[in-house]
Amino acid sequence: MTRVTDHGGGVHSIEVPIPDNPLGHTLVHLVDTGRGPVLIDTGWDDPASWDTLVAGLSALGTAVSDVHGIVITHHHPDHHGLSGRVREASGAWIAMHEADTAIVRRTREAEPGTWLDYLTRKLAAVGAPDDHLAPLRAARAGGRLRTLPGLSAALPDREIVPGELLDLAGRRLRAVWTPGHTPGHVCLHLEERHPANLPGHGRLFSGDHLLPGISPHIGLYEDPDDTAVTDPLGDYLASLERIGRLGVAEVLPAHQHAFTDAGGRVRELLAHHEERLTGLLALLATPLTPWQLAERMEWNRPWEQIPHGSRSIAVSEAESHLRRLVKLGRAEAIPGGPPVTYIAV
Ligand SMILES: [Zn+2]
Ligand SMILES: [Zn+2]
């Protein structure tokens, strides 16, 4: 049974399943415009997800072939996975922020082993032990390269320009750049009166940036060609404040469910990160590599039970917190290494 929700004012959502993922589904939003429906995100590229999307559109009295445009909040496969297929079936344009489009392009063009080499080198530099690196080296040597989602992701044909209205007939949908979860993440602000007259300024399609019960993963931007030291957590916190200031009446996120009180949720997340940074400073009373810090941080399960791939993601989250602490002047790297070690100052 395909689940669709009427959010009022010509806005609906379809629950498109993500296979084998605790998140369950992506909420694909559909905004009616004078030239046909526009989708915000499309869902995971999987036959069952595609069927659900198609069934959802037909339950809403439209069809994939009617889709006029696709607006993508960020390049992750649970958001952008089906975009190419929808474009093929409809001729719709696909719009994305240029920073995430660059990632799509880079991933499509990468040599099969490049990503694995980059990951292995990087993990070694932050103190990953040999037993973590061994499977990566074995996969490289044996040519058993995991197929990464995104290798065939669709190249967008339009750019989402921060601060500008999208070109949609009869609607006011403004792009708000919210880097952090990815460098080109955007939220979309529907600058129209709330259909149920809830107080506040319109509605916000928040992607993965602002969710009612999940704190999104903030890691590193992971660009093998870019040596600039970015600060994704700093970007994310600034993006949260930007969203908080909009004073929207309702948030329509890409997972879980719609909610009100965006300002309260923003404050909760800011407090959560402040608390986490303070906790990390206590751990950094003794010098630690990013890997050692990740081992000591609090996760949703004990470190021993975290699978291999998720440990690599966890250590990038530890690194994004270290970069923030360094930027704030609350921690510093100790000369020497690799692996690099950090200490609170
Ligand atoms: Zn995401
Ligand atoms: Zn997501």
UniProtKB/TrEMBL annotation:
CDD domains in UniProt: TTHA1429-like_MBL-fold
Q: Which domain of life is it from?
A: Bacteria
**Which InterPro entries does this entry report, sorted A to Z?**
Metallo-B-lactamas, RibonucZ/Hydroxyglut_hydro, Sec-metab_biosynth-thioest, WH-like_DNA-bd_sf
Q: Which SUPFAM superfamilies match?
A: Metallo-hydrolase/oxidoreductase
Task: Outline the extent of the Metallo-beta-lactamase domain.
Answer: 25-255
What does the record list as coiled-coil region(s)?
A: none
This chain's protein is named: MBL fold metallo-hydrolase
Organism, scientific name = Streptomyces californicus
Which classification does the entry list for the species? Bacteria, Bacillati, Actinomycetota, Actinomycetes, Kitasatosporales
